[in-house]
Write a structure and sequence with these properties.
Length: 300
């Protein structure tokens, strides 16, 4: 079945953009409840932060939610949430867990489908509607080590994408992912730990190399930008955001208050199908029969 979302685009599975956003609100509210009840700090990030500042909710044509947490809070959430959230409703897809070889986490909604533009290598991977949960980590005060951290993150990312499967028309990305197959898993885990820089918890800067951006400059921030927060409304509820949101958004998007042109106000093209009424298990194998005409350029 096909329907049309609020931007006029066709959406497989009969789920409009508004319905998808409503499902994301359920996930975000559940995530925030766990964090607030257990004193776990987090904040809205990236396009979700932009939506809060500019629209007091979702960017009208967006179908994504990103949250950001310090590494220790992120790891506490991954320990507590599976014991707290209703298992029939929610699924915590923690980084480097069974059937999820990636370097960040997701909170998924059971009995829904979100079939992204790649062919999963693991048929047991959960593919329900999700929000992204990203950690931020300590960026070394030494410029040389900073670049080594950045390069190391690329190794970890390439390995995760290779194991999960990535659809790309980039010859370079394909080559890097293929090269990552030569690096043993234990070595990748050691590189990952190096990038986290746990032994220096009070560096001047922090990084989001394992979040959604690919460029160095858009992933490094003064620590205060992510440690100091204020509450801002998003879809009728107050959520923490960076107290330095203007500087942060300008780093990420430039002059973010200027709306894109009408033709650029469209849903991201990173899903083949979204269905809020039927589970992803009814669509297994669906991606194999689809042709990708527009590749979504994201590390995810």
């Amino acid at each position: 079945m096909r329907d049309r979302d609020d931007s006029g685009q066709e959406v497989s599975g009969g789920s409009s953009l508004t319905q998808h956003q409503n499902a994301l609100k359920v996930l975000l509210n559940a995530f925030a409840d766990v964090c607030e009840q257990n004193n776990i700090p987090f904040q809205l990030y990236a396009g979700t932060l932009l939506g809060a500042v500019r629209h007091q909710g979702f960017i009208p044509w967006d179908d994504d939610v990103d949250v950001l947490m310090p590494r220790d809070a992120y790891e506490r959430f991954l320990q507590i949430a599976p014991q707290t959230l209703e298992p029939d409703v929610f699924f915590v897809q923690g980084e480097n867990s069974a059937h999820w070889p990636m370097f960040f986490s997701k909170l998924r909604l059971n009995n829904t489908a979100c079939m992204e533009k790649y062919i999963p290598k693991d048929p047991l991977m959960h593919q329900g509607i999700y929000i992204d949960i990203f950690p931020y980590d300590n960026l070394s005060d030494c410029s040389v080590v900073r670049m080594l951290q950045f390069c190391g993150s690329k190794v970890v990312i390439a390995k995760g994408l290779q194991l999960r499967g990535l659809a790309t028309n980039s010859v370079l990305k394909k080559a890097v992912m293929q090269a990552s197959t030569l690096i043993p898993g234990p070595v990748v885990r050691k590189i990952h730990e190096y990038v986290l820089n746990r032994t220096h918890p009070r560096t001047k800067m922090v990084h989001t190399f394992f979040a959604a951006g690919s460029m160095y400059q858009k992933n490094v921030f003064p620590r205060a930008w992510l440690e100091e927060t204020v509450v801002m409304p998003f879809e009728g509820r107050g959520y923490p955001v960076s107290a330095h949101y203007d500087a942060l958004l300008r780093r990420l998007y430039g002059d973010y208050r200027i709306l894109p042109s009408e033709e650029d106000r469209k849903r991201k093209e990173h899903n083949f199908l979204v269905d809020i009424d039927r589970p992803y298990t009814e669509y297994l194998g669906y991606q194999r029969n689809q042709k990708i005409e527009v590749f979504y350029e994201s590390i995810r």
